[in-house]
Specification:
The chain is an alpha/beta fold and 134 residues long. The protein has 3 helices and 4 strands. Strand 2, helix 2 and strand 3 form a beta-alpha-beta unit. InterPro entries: HAD-like_sf (IPR036412), HAD_sf (IPR023214), Phage_SP01_Orf1 (IPR016769).
Length: 134
């Protein structure tokens, strides 16, 4: 996919950005933060779209912030949006990235490649001393 305009992308937290360990925060998924940062650098708006609320939500937001990701909005379509029981809580986004997708979460390398048409650079493992004899 090559996009000519910036997209709004809603991203789940548990099982998508990090391994599912709710209510704790799991380990970051491989390439998650690198992909999210690249998408932001390309001008896409990222919305954190998660089941978490209260202190658990604050923990997730702060965890992402420490990893260099500040979301455009959190559990809403726009930063200035107010909670309103007369409106649907559905997020207005162009894409949703979630581990609960039909077929499951394909992994961040696949997401990156699909959205950018680029292959992610996977660092090569350094050979140890015994690797010199192969």
């Amino acid at each position: 996919m090559n996009f000519k305009h910036a997209l709004t992308i809603a991203v789940d937290f548990d099982g998508t950005i990090v391994e599912d360990a709710y209510p704790e925060i799991g380990k970051p998924q491989v390439f998650a933060f690198e992909t999210l940062k690249r998408l932001q650098d390309q001008g896409h708006r990222l919305i954190l779209w998660t089941y978490r609320c209260g202190d658990r939500l604050d923990e997730a937001v702060n965890f992402c912030k420490e990893k260099g990701i500040v979301f455009y909005a959190v559990n809403k379509s726009f930063p200035e949006e107010e909670d309103d029981t007369n409106r649907s809580p559905k997020i207005l986004a162009d894409l949703f990235i979630d581990d609960r997708n039909l077929g499951g979460f394909p992994g961040w390398a696949h997401v990156y490649q699909t959205l950018t048409n680029e292959t992610p650079q996977i660092p090569k493992k350094k050979k140890g001393f015994l690797g010199l004899f192969k």
